[in-house]
Amino acid sequence: MPAVRGFQMALCKRMDYDEVEGARFGRFNLADNSTAIVYRIGDTIIDTGPPNQWAAVKNYLSEKPIRQVILTHHHEDHSGNAAPISRRFQVPVYIDTKGIRPVSSGFPLKPYQRFFWGRPRPFTPQTMPETIRTGRGHTLVPISTPGHAPDHVCLLEPDRKWLFSGDLFLATRPKLFRADEDLEGEIQSLMKIAACDFNILFCAHKGVVQNGRDRIREKRDYFVELVDTVKKMHAQGQSVKDITRQVFGRKNFIGKISFNHICSENLIRQCLAVDEGKYP
Q1: 276 φ, ψ (degrees, to nearest 5)
Q2: What's the rounded Cα separation, in Å, for the pair 279 and 22?
Q3: Can you tell me the distance from the alpha carbon of 75 to that of 49, in angstroms, rounded to the nearest whole number?
Q4: Which pLDDT score is estimated for 51?
């Protein structure tokens, strides 16, 4: 397949860890967050990949029987192939109650989202159960973790100490934030997950992360410290633009192509909106 401006296109990369299988899909192989991972435990699928990669996702899923699909949240790189999967394989797709409306009726996308991921088709999901049994005998416990999205959940396998973290983790020291993310909610979700007992983290973009609980704590501490730093700088009279430049430097490529839907200034603004009294 030809490259675009020197970048590899249409990635499908397999991975395995213990009894968990996965495949990474994306139109452009630019970085971890330009691709998304579909995980499989036995007959259970976690997230469905971007809709513009349906042909590759369909081939991957057709290799073994599927009984159910679990979505960590409604964003297009996670729910993107849920509609054709539910029709082709005749299986239920589960999502948190707050995600039912967007996947049922559709949700707006920015131009960069349509370009990188494609547009998902609406479908009728089922409400996430309190526990989920997989075809390998494992039990997944959904944990509500809003912040990145209102319907975001993580899935804990308590016996094996695994955590399927969706987009809660991504990096220990992120510099970018979506305009529709809630930092206060994400800090509280990180605190909730940091209190759980797990070791291996399965991130939807980074892949397998060792010492996952420590990495979650690092991200929590980073956000708490960042909020304190930003609030102090703002109290000294510095503007959001000035603080952003000092803390993170110049606007990067992602901020430009997303027209600031994903950028560092969003994170600085969210820091100023956080009520520090809501966490220790």
Answers
A1: -65, -15
A2: 35
A3: 10
A4: 97
The strand pairing partners of 26, in sequence order, are: 11
Residue with tokens 């996952």: 212
3-state secondary structure labels for all residues of 17-85: ECCEEEEEEEEECCCHHHCEEEEEECCEEECCCCHHHHHHHHHHHCCCCCCEEECCCCCHHHHCCHHHH
Please tell me whether the overall predicted TM-score, pTM, comes out greater than 0.90 for this model: yes
HSE-CB for 140 with a 13 A CA cutoff: 30
Per residue in 124-169, pLDDT (tens digit) is 999 999 999 998 889 999 999 999 999 999 999 999 999 999 999 9
- b/e for 266-276, b at 16 or more Cβ within 10 A? bbbbbbeebee
In angstroms, rounded to a whole number, what is the distance separating the alpha carbons of residues 126 and 124?
7
Q: Which residues contact 209 (CB under 8 A, 6 or more apart)?
A: 169, 200, 201, 202, 203, 215
Six token digits for residue 69: 């699909």
